Amino acid sequence: MWYPRPMNEPFRPFGKIMTARFVERPNRFLVRCERGGRQIDAFLPNSGRLQELLLPGRLLRVIEEEKPGTRKTAYTVVAVDRDGAPVMLHTHKTNAVARYLLERRLIPGLEDAEIVKQEKTVGHSRFDFLLSRGRGEVLLEVKSCTLFGKRVAMFPDAITARGERHLRELACAPENGAHGAVLFVVHWPALDFFMPDFHTDLRFARTFLAVRESVSLIPIAVRWQEDLSLSDEVRLLDIPWPQIEREARDQGGYVLILKTEEDRFLPFGRGRTSLLRKGFYLYVGSAMKNLTARMERHLRLRKRYHWHIDWLRAVSEVHGVFPVRSSSRVECDLAEALSRLADWSVAGFGCSDCSCFTHLFGLADDPLRSEAFHNVLQYFRMDRLL
Fold it and tell me: Are the CB atoms for 54 and 66 separated by under 8 Å?
């Protein structure tokens, strides 16, 4: 039997909360931050990329664990501020959020559901909740979403084979006498739309489309107060199905980030040479067919040189590659937007089939630590579509 908490008790998942400033993330589960004039290491219970949130100087909310046990760090990061408000990062608490909202009947489409048990194993997967609704049962999986732009949230921010498998297995839930549902908890209130992140995980997005008639897909936006208590304000986000069907294809543009360690003269193309300064380079390309294969080609060193970028790739290391899947060509518009961030550029590079000045832009500092770069990427990946 499931016993709900008292209805007048606000949901506060954490005790005493301290603040710190983000410095770096040495690995997926470790954050280095500055607090009170000294550096501390903190555990990050979130395996997402979070690159647009964990930027230098960002305000973090951390707690000190009373019994850290075998952990090397006594601190845990629980949230990060964006635009002056907290975004909850502690994914282990998302099920508790879902439980709180279910108990108060605040989840659209599940207002009449009762919690039967938590963690129900069916087939090869374990789902977060088994609910009863009327005479039927619901298998509910809960996902935490922290990737969002000005109006749009997306999930996932990294490839999730597990998440894609959950969608397929929930579509088969009726075979076990239940209905399948996924609750996407978006930890930011000021949004209108939700989409699968087809830029990052095209397979998940195509499965998301395929199960739309058989699985209830429920994206909600929640608000965290300054003290990290959860508001009862819940907003159901629209899913723009036509845009997803149109854009979730293996085509569009991409940004390849390369890093060079020293100045050098770079020959490229037919007898052309340019001074290549030490630093980071943003190369904008496109492929209106087989975009994934095109990006994978750039990761390889052994290949026959064909495009200008092949010469640059031979003397640099890959620092990141970001697809911008699109049914229309975005390459030149993307290059124009990124040109405003550049410290320098290489004339005539990668633009022989268009009228652009260049598609290669140099920066002295790491663009992945730049809010301006992530804003451009999020615009082309999210808000441009609506």
Answer: no
- Which has the closest alpha carbon to 254: 229, 282, 280? 282
Q: Sign of torsion, CA 245 250 251 255? A: positive
Residues of the chain with CATH 2.40.50.580: 18-83
According to DSSP H, which parts of 196-314 are helical?
A: 202-210, 241-247, 291-299, 308-313
Q: Could you give phi then psi for residue 26, rounded to 5 degrees?
A: -60, -35
CATH architecture of the domain with range 91-247: 3-Layer(aba) Sandwich (3.40)
Q: Which residues of the chain form CATH 3.40.1350.60?
A: 91-247
- Assigned CATH class of 18-83: mainly beta
Q: What is the pLDDT along the chain (386 residues), one digit of tens a residue?
A: 233 444 567 899 999 999 999 999 999 999 999 999 999 999 999 999 999 999 999 999 999 987 766 678 899 999 999 999 999 999 999 999 999 999 999 999 999 999 999 999 987 789 999 999 988 999 999 999 999 999 999 999 999 999 999 999 999 999 889 999 999 999 999 999 999 999 999 999 999 999 999 999 999 999 999 999 999 999 999 999 999 999 999 999 999 999 999 999 988 766 678 888 999 999 999 999 999 999 999 999 988 888 899 999 999 999 999 999 999 999 999 999 999 999 999 998 999 889 999 999 999 999 999 999 999 999 999 999 98
**Nearest to 232, CA basis, from 61, 8, 81:** 8
Q: Helix or strand or coil: residue 334?
A: helix
**Cα of 63 vs its chain's centroid, Å:** 24
Q: Any idea of the CA torsion for 7, 9, 14, 17, to the nearest 10 degrees?
A: 150
324: tokens are 């911008």
Q: β-pairing, 230-236 with 215-224?
A: antiparallel
Neighbours of 290 (CB within 10 A): 12
Strand partners, 33: 22, 40
pTM: 0.94
CA distance 380 to 83: 20
Judge whether 281 and 258 are in contact, CB under 8 Å.
yes
Assess contact for 281 and 320: CB atoms under 8 A: no
Q: How far is CA 298 from CA 39, 273, 279, 327, in A?
A: 37, 20, 18, 22
Are the C-beta atoms of 199 and 325 separated by less than 8 Å?
yes
